[in-house]
């Protein structure tokens, strides 16, 4: 080898982004196709989100295992971004306040875990490539360190349900802290939405022409929303005192 020749570097090049995350790309295409198909169905049948909720109500009424189907549909709901609030209101309308709260709590927490796992899947390996001092990385680290408090506060403030779920999964918040904060934080909102639906009576009463507005249920629904916002204020104040101390 002459003095002017340099050794050739045969070290393998770093794998491309697509080679590292091709599974996520395929999953994202499938998810996008599902959303497109759902919106196509609504447009083809000239249905709004409210119309779709009404169809669900009559479908559950005719179903043999309505409570089980309700929980399954609620759990899979985030895949098509169907509003969680409408499904919770529907529980009070279909099953009444007591059973409606039980089914809605089971369904809402199941759907939260589904969205969390989807977000965790798409977030896997992405944050590791982010610079440690970046703003996004600092937010992710803070969210992980205070996962329970952060998720609980977002639940009590009624921030978009699915956004919180996907974000927590994407940032890899500990699933135990996420689930516990979700169970606790959604209690006031779930009861409130179910009572709101139940305040207009049940679907059986509607079909029999016996619907009457239940003022007490409606008032309790509004009151629980206010209680949730008040609790969120207390939690945020205590969290600030802990950081200052």
How would you describe this structure to a colleague?
- Helix 2 (49-62) runs parallel beside helix 4, helix 5 runs antiparallel to helix 9 and helix 7 (147-156) packs parallel to helix 9 (175-185).
- The chain starts with 16 loop residues before the first helix and ends with a helix.
- With 245 residues, the protein is an all-alpha fold.
- It has helices spanning 17-44, 49-62, 66-76, 84-95, 97-123, 135-145, 147-156, 161-170, 175-185, 187-198, 203-207, 215-244.
- 74% of the residues lie in helices and 0% in strands.
- It has one domain.
- The chain has twelve helices and no strands.
Task: For the structure shown, list the relevant keywords.
74% helix; 12 helices; 245 residues; mainly alpha
Oligomer: single chain
Distance between the termini: 68 Å
Helix content: over 70%
Main beta-sheet annotation = none
Order of helices and strands: HHHHHHHHHHHH
Number of strands: 0
Cα-based radius of gyration, to the nearest Å:
23 Å
Residue-averaged pLDDT: 77
* H/I helix tally: 12
Our count of domains comes out at 1
Low-pLDDT windows of residues: none
In terms of DSSP E residues, the strand content is under 5%
Structural class, by secondary structure, is mainly alpha
Shape: flat
Strand and helix layout:
Layout: H1 17-44, H2 49-62, H3 66-76, H4 84-95, H5 97-123, H6 135-145, H7 147-156, H8 161-170, H9 175-185, H10 187-198, H11 203-207, H12 215-244
Helix pairs in contact: 2-4, 3-5, 4-5, 4-10, 5-8, 5-9, 5-10, 7-9, 7-12, 10-12
Short précis:
With 245 residues, the chain is mainly alpha-helical. It contains twelve helices and no strands. The chain has one domain.
């Amino acid at each position: 080898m002459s003095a002017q020749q340099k050794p050739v570097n045969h070290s393998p090049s770093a794998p491309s982004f697509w080679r590292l995350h091709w599974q996520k790309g395929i999953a994202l295409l499938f998810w996008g196709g599902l959303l497109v198909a759902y919106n196509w169905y609504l447009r083809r049948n000239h249905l709004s989100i409210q119309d779709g909720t009404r169809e669900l109500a009559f479908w559950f009424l005719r179903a043999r295992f309505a409570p089980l189907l309700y929980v399954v549909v609620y759990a899979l709901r985030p895949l098509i971004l169907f509003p969680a609030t409408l499904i919770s209101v529907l529980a009070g309308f279909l099953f009444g306040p007591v059973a409606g709260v039980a089914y809605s709590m089971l369904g809402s927490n199941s759907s939260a875990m589904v969205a969390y796992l989807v977000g965790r899947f798409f977030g896997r390996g992405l944050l590791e490539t982010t610079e440690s001092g970046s703003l996004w990385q600092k937010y992710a680290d803070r969210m992980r360190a205070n996962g329970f408090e952060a998720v609980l506060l977002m639940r009590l403030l009624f921030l978009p349900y699915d956004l919180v779920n996907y974000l927590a999964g994407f940032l890899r918040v500990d699933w135990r802290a996420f689930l516990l904060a979700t169970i606790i934080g959604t209690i006031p909102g779930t009861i409130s939405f179910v009572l709101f639906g139940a305040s207009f009576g049940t679907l059986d009463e509607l079909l029999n022409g016996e619907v009457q507005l239940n003022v007490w249920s409606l008032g309790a629904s509004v009151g629980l929303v206010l209680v949730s916002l008040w609790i969120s204020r207390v939690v945020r104040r205590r969290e600030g005192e802990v950081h200052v101390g």
